[in-house]
Amino acid sequence: MKQMLKEFKEFISRGNVMDMAVGIIIGGAFTGIVNSFVNDIINPIIGIFGGMNFSDLKWNIVGDVTLNYGSFITAVINFLIMAAVLFAIIKFMNRFSAKLVVKKKDEEEHTEPTTKICPFCKTEIAIDATRCPHCTSNL
Questions:
Q1: 18-33 burial: b if 16+ Cβ within 10 Å, else e
Q2: Domain boundaries of the chain, sorted by first residue
Q3: Which CATH class is domain 2-111?
Q4: How does residue 86 score in pLDDT terms, banded at 50, 70 and 90?
């Protein structure tokens, strides 16, 4: 039992599990923001031009049984807004990481060499070496 608790503790304390947990919590909060944006801003604006609120759209099938297709339209709008925002965030992050990769590559190209080739035995040695460690020649 102790071994299982120890393994569980190691699993929970890994960085990627914690990152995933933070992402899920932020995603839940972001969903609330998008839902509020659609319900409180987008739907009333569309209601001004269309003269209706999506939440009120329903089809009475039989008696009290209704098909609330307005709620479905609202959910589709929520999804499209969330997808657009995530697309923009991922596009920004990809652009930013691409610039970092180019910057690192430029830094690597402009660094001074740290090794040289021994003119006698042709092995790679430190650039500040005065004697080759392989053939013991004076450089």
A1: eeeeeeeeeeeeeeee
A2: 2-111
A3: mainly alpha
A4: confident
